[in-house]
Amino acid sequence: MSDSDSFINEVTEEVRREKLFGYLRRYGWVAVAAVLLLVGGAAWNEYRKAQERAVAEATGDALMAALENEDPAARAAAMAQVEGAGAAAAVTTLLRAATEQEAGDIEASAATLAGLAANPDVPEMYRDVAALKAAMLPTEDAVARRANLDALSQPGQPFRLLALEQIAYMTLAEGDADGAIAIMRQIEEDAGVTRGLRERVQTLMVALGEPLPDPVTQ
Fold first, then answer.
1. DSSP 120-187
2. Taking residues 190-211, what's their average pLDDT?
3. CB 187 within 8 A of CB 180
4. Is the entire prediction scored with pTM above 0.70?
5. For residue 101, is pLDDT > 70?
């Protein structure tokens, strides 16, 4: 390589370095800000996780303390004081409603479940469970119960088959055995029925004198 070529290469390299330093002086703060943002974001994420974990642990401890009450009424009152958010609050509310029902306060249990079913701040799954549990309560308003169960038994509802099961029980209690069997047959033949639910309805159908279909043989 000639001296002139070497000189040209050195000058070109020097120009590149000057441009690079110029870019760093002009835009270096962007890189620094990006690093600070990443580090700060990671620290905030860890802090948020620690806070959520602490809240969940406090809710769990309060719930366990409430469950230690042997008296259902006292247990329900203690559960009403447990604070939580999201799924934790929903589970606590469902346990509270069950305890109120155990204590014989059906009205309070129904009100607790109705409040949960209408609460937009909890996951939809828990709202659906609350609606189903409310419809299953032995209230005197059979018409309202039937209407709620009919709504929950519509196609696409997550607890449709369980709602149909309750409708079958109500129909049987009204003295319509044939109607109850027809509903149970519908449950039994549904592709989404669980094993436990199928066995429950089949047991009741047999008790009502309804023969079960012969098993399919290959």
1. TTS-HHHHHHHHHHHHHS--S-HHHHHHHHHHHTSTT-TTHHHHHHHHHHHHHHTT-HHHHHHHHHHH
2. 91
3. no
4. no
5. yes
Compute the distance between CA of residue 56 and CA of residue 85 in angstroms, rounded to an integer. Answer: 9
Q: What is the 3-state secondary structure (H, E, C) of 181-201?
A: HHHHHHHHHCCCCCHHHHHHH
Question: Angle at Cα 75 formed by Cα 73 and Cα 80, nearest 5°?
Answer: 95
Amino acid at 18: E
Of 62-71, 96-105, 129-138, the one with minimum mean pLDDT is 62-71
CB 168 within 8 A of CB 205: no
Neighbouring C-beta atoms of residue 128, cutoff 10 Å? 16
Contact 208, 184 (CB under 8 A): no
CA dihedral 121, 77, 141, 176 (to 10 degrees): 90
